[in-house]
Amino acid sequence: MVEPTWLLTGAAVSAVLGFGWLALAMDTHWEQVHGDAAPPPSLARALRLAGALALAASLGLCLGADHPTMAVLVWLMLLAGGAVAIAATLSWQPRWLRALWPRRVAAQ
Amino acid sequence: MFQNFRLSMAWLHTWFGLVLGFVLMVVFFFGSLSVFDREIDRWAIPSSRFAPQPMPSFDTILKPAFERMQPDKDAIALLDGRVDGPLPERFEVVRSWGAYTTHRDPVVSVFAGFEVPRAKDPDETVFASHALDPRTGAVLPQGQLRVGSEFFYPLHYSLHLKWKDLGTWIVGFSALMMLAALVSGVVMHRKIFREFFTFRRHKTVQRSALDLHNLTGVVALPFHFFFAFTGLVIFAGIYFPVAHTQLHALHELHERVEARETGLPHERAGVAAPMASVDAMVAQAQRRWQAKGMAGDVGFVYVSHVGDANAYVSVYRAGTDRVALTGEGVHFKATTGELLREDPPRSAVDSVNEFLTGLHLQHFRHWLLRWLYVLGGLLGCVCIATGFLFFVEKRKQQHAKAGSAGSRVVDALAVTTVTGMLVATMAMLVANRLLPESLADKGDWERTVFWSAWGLAMLHAFARGGALARARMNPAWREQCGLIAAGAVTAVVANAVTTGDHLGRTLAAGYWPVAGVDLSLLATAAVAILAAGRLGRRAKATATGHSPAVLATAEARHG
């Protein structure tokens, strides 16, 4: 039995990661983060998929920590927090998001 | 009237958002504070700074306290004109006793309802209520205000306008229009997904304010929607008062039928009778919950028809471990302790209603969700505040040229409701710590300080609004940020000096209610200082002719 605290921490991290990947799949944000035009379409698809999966995983972790009625509330609020965190990072330190999808140096 | 649907939605969003935004700002901010109302109570009343306690023994602690209770002068004053003949010295017939506590309460709230002799409405009840130290049964000093649960929380839903529930109606109407604003906002927003993460803080104020408005509105949309909606559900009984207006007779009949079905007497028998041990009934209720697999603490004990042969005791479970505000009530005959009834499983409609109200009222134990609610509330505040800024920025050049005062007035009101509200809050907390504990009606003084400070903040905002006529920013924003920071730091220092509970001690002892309020005040001060600094640099840059956008870009390059 995992401690609820760890499950919820995981859920919060997943929410941030999920929105990070969803943002990177968007042309403008990819450019902000990596400095060049846009992710190749296949990569954009992969990022979107990874983002969606991470958000779903976040819900799963919330459900593991709490009663379903409570878990849904926690998840929706974590989504709000995660989205704000990514938006703020894109506004202040977009390069930090390179950590979510580092590109090979050769590609630069 | 409008060329298309989107324009009509824009009109609705702009004008209703502007007018009701001032109300909603108050609702969102004090709602956010109400998430931690009990903790603010601890901070404001040092004698209640001890660990949360379970419901105390009824027989030894609560009963003697109830027997001493009588309505205070304010409650009696409300009876003015509602009674034929003089009021009695002492209210003898007790309709009900109630004791309520949660997992966050060191003190237990107790109230007693009394029959009013010769009242025009035979159902008229006058109430007495206190906060009680459950360890000793001592009543906390009267006249002291539980700032969180007795001031900030009612301000959140009633604006403290009690006359004919006017405040509750205004808040309800605003919540209803907020639902409309959310829908119209989504309709107006052209790039809801493309700009989901967008905050271009280096662009013009107008642009960055709109980005932030959209961002905070969209990411917390489920929160905004659910809280506006569930707030309306909670007060549905006030907004649709059919049970006590058109359908009064039916309502009475229903109560009687219900009483017959449940076996819980609707009326007094008129025969005095002593009470059996309530502690034994509480113990039995807890055994019954345990048998159902829901062992739990007692949240609420209620005695109806006190002192009468028909008296009965209702014991409800604390809703610590679930969202729904369910009580799993167990009812006993007060004279004998015989089980009268156990609440049946809830119907689907009841379950939904209890989930919706529980979601909003949050009596559960979940600290992360509590903080996330604060985040949601503050995102709502940012959304409304940036809405005001956008409104003003969009029009101020034009109004300045035309000599119109429109944006000046809106801006001054925005200052009043955004920073002015915080100034008032800080003033109240400082007053709470500096006014002597022995002062009679200390709570009334604190209220006076709050409203006066808010009034002064408003005067200040209007007095400094001249800058708008030159299409500049009102310096009151910056000056009030400074006041907020000063007030917050003063409150923390005053708490340390007057109670000795400085952060070193509360953090070391892990006494989070007080440490948390202090830390939140310091965080507020930090944000206010940062904001004042930014606004100061911008004002200087504008004065020397650089546009804010240029300054911001320069700042970013060097930053």
Distance between the termini of chain A: 45 Å
What is the average per-residue confidence, as pLDDT of chain B, rounded to a whole number?
90
Report low-confidence residues of chain B grouped into runs of 5 or more.
550-559
Distance between the termini of chain B: 49 Å
- Which quaternary structure do these chains form? heterodimer
Number of strands of chain B: 7
Please give the order of strands in the largest beta sheet of chain B: 3-2-1-4-5-6-7
**What structural class is derived from the secondary structure elements of chain B?**
alpha+beta
Strand content of chain A: under 5%
Write the H/E string of chain B, N to C.
HHHHEEEHHHHHHHEEEEHHHHHHHH
**Biggest interface, residues from each chain:** A-B, 26 and 28 residues
Task: Return Rg of chain B in Å.
Answer: 26 Å
Report helical residue fraction of chain B. 55-70%
Describe this entry's structure for a reader.
The complex is a heterodimer of chains A (108) and B (559). Chain A has one domain. In chain A, 73% of the residues lie in helices and 0% in strands. Chain A has helices at 4-24, 27-34, 41-65, 68-92. Chain A starts with a helix and ends in a 16-residue tail after the last helix. Chain B has 559 residues and is α+β, with helices and mostly antiparallel strands. Among the domains of chain B are: 53-139 and 242-347, no CATH class; 405-559, no CATH class. Chain B has 19 helices and seven strands. In chain B, helix 6 packs antiparallel against helix 8 (221-234). The longest helix of chain B has 36 residues, at 367-402. Chain B is globular and about 85 Å long. Mean pLDDT of chain B is 90; it is low at 550-559.
